[in-house]
Amino acid sequence: MAQGGGGAGRRPRVLLGATGSVASVKLPLLVARLLALPQQPEVRVVCTEHAKHFFAPESLPVPVYSDADEWQTWTRLGDPVLHVDLRRWADLLLLAPLDANSLAKVAGGLCDNLLMCVVRAWDRDRPLLFCPAMNTHMWDHPLTGAHTRALRQLGYEEVACVSKTLACGDTGLGAMAEVDTIVQAVQTHLRASLTTPEPTREPGSTQEPGSTQEPGSTQEPGSTQEPGSTQEPGSTQEPGSTQEPGSTQEPGSTRTI
Ligand SMILES: Cc1cc2nc3c(=O)[nH]c(=O)nc-3n(C[C@H](O)[C@H](O)[C@H](O)COP(=O)(O)O)c2cc1C
C-alpha cells in the first residue's frame, strides 16, 4: 500500500482518533459527514477504551481499531505494528473529540495506548487537527491552556471548542466544535491536496474500497515497511505561545496533505 502523504490517483485518507469524551456520541455523524465529502476520503477510526462507552464501534461503516488490535496483530518480530502502519496509512489525523486526559497525554508525549502511539509517531509534515471537548471547569483550568498551547506549538491545528450547556449541566466553553465546523476544517486540507479520488466506490456502498480489513486482522493497513521511521524524533519548534484555551487556530498551522 502506498505510503501516506497523498499521492495522486488515490483517495485521501483520514484517520479519526476518538477519546473518552461524551462528544464521542457524535462519531457516527462525524464519520458519515467525512465520507460524504466531495474528496471521498477513506476513513478509519482509532479509539481509546473509554471512547467505546459513547458509541458502538460495529455501528460505524469504517474500520475501527483499539488497543486489543495492536497486540492481536503482533506476536513476534516481523509482524506488523499497527500504530506504525496506521500512521503510515493516514494523510490527515483528526482527534475528535480530544478529552482532557488524552490532551494532557499528547502534550506530555505519553503513548500508553494505540491512539496515543499513533499521535506520538505522527509525521508532523502531515496535518493533525484536534478538537478539545471537556467540562467547562476542566477547560478553564490553566493546565488546559498549557496543553493546547503545546499542541499548537507542534504545528497541530486546533478546532476550537464552543460554549454551550454541556451534557453535565454546566454552561460555558468546553463543548466540542460542531461537526460541520470540524468537517469544514478537514475539507480545507483535503481541498488543498493533490490527491484525486479514485472512481472505484460502488454506488450506494457505505464501505470504502480498499478498507475491507477488519480490526484484529493480521494484515497491516499501511505499507510493508518495517517499523522504525527515519524521521528525526522531536521537533525544532520552540515553546512560547501565549494563545489561550478556547482561542482559534495557531498561525502557521496550515499544513496540507
Ligand atoms: C459520562 C462521562 C462523560 C465524560 N465526558 C468527558 C468529556 O467530555 N471530556 C473529558 O475530558 N473527559 C470526559 N470524561 C472523563 C474521561 O472519560 C476520562 O478522563 C477517561 O479517563 C478518558 O480516557 P481516554 O482519554 O483514554 O479516553 C467523561 C467521563 C464520563 C463518565
From TrEMBL:
Domain of life, per lineage: Eukaryota
A single cellular component GO annotation: phosphopantothenoylcysteine decarboxylase complex
Keyword line: Coenzyme A biosynthesis
Positions of region (Disordered): 191-257
GO biological process: coenzyme A biosynthetic process
SUPFAM superfamilies according to UniProt: Homo-oligomeric flavin-containing Cys decarboxylases, HFCD (SSF52507)
Positions with biased composition (Polar residues): 193-257
Domain Flavoprotein: 13-189
Gene Ontology MF: a single term: FMN binding
Task of the protein: Catalyzes the decarboxylation of the cysteine moiety of 4-phosphopantothenoylcysteine to form 4'-phosphopantotheine and this reaction forms part of the biosynthesis of coenzyme A.
Family as reported in the entry's similarity comment: Belongs to the HFCD (homooligomeric flavin containing Cys decarboxylase) superfamily.
Protein name: Phosphopantothenoylcysteine decarboxylase
